[in-house]
Amino acid sequence: MTATALKFATYEDLFDLPENLVGEIIHGQLITQPRPAPKHIVASSALGEELVSPFQKDGEAVQAAGGFWMSRNCILARIFWCPIWPAGGGNVCPPCRIRPFTLPPDWVCGVLSPGTARIDRADKMPIYAEYGVSFLWLIDPALHTLEAFVLRDGHWSLEHVYQENDEVRAVPFDAVAFSLAGLWS
Asked: Which pTM does this prediction carry?
């Protein structure tokens, strides 16, 4: 009896998916789900509008927060953070054959859906903690909530749960407040 070798997914596998699916590679495995629902897209886009202008462009908020580079997702940007590729390891990640960021992000925001919430919490949160991502937000468009986490001693600490139309002022973007209601429009 022979054991079946586990095939690790590659970046190219993401492009081979049918039009109705999106995918992620987690622990070397391709995970697929249906394309995001309108609620998911609205929340993600609205959050981007709230944060990109004050934190990525010149201004007082950028200086207060230290400045950020923001990318919505790896497919659109054609770059992503690759935890298996060491910093200073060259221009292209051999398994993925693309140019990754060489450092993990300071902040990650996940927009939950019924099909992804378990993966976001059970699989991705420990990966983010392992690689030292300092801040994590989880947005649930169905429940109208934003959970803000901070990494402390390698474990996630829930700092605050914002809901409905609360004013959000959460690290690392606490230099500017915005209404959570704008994410549900």
From this structure: 0.69
Report cis status (omega within 30 of 0) of the bond before 100.
no
Of the candidates 175, 149, 181, 177, the residue with the CA atom closest to the CA atom of residue 46: 181
Q: How far is CA 115 from CA 23, 33, 38, 128, in A?
A: 12, 7, 14, 20
Residue 114 and residue 11 in contact, taking contact as beta carbons nearer than 8 Å: no
State the pairing for strand pair 107-111/135-140.
parallel
What 3-state DSSP class applies to 75?
helix
Alpha-carbon distance of 27 to 96, in angstroms, equals: 13
Nearest to 173 by CA among 137, 143, 145: 137
User: What pLDDT is attached to residue 96?
Assistant: 52
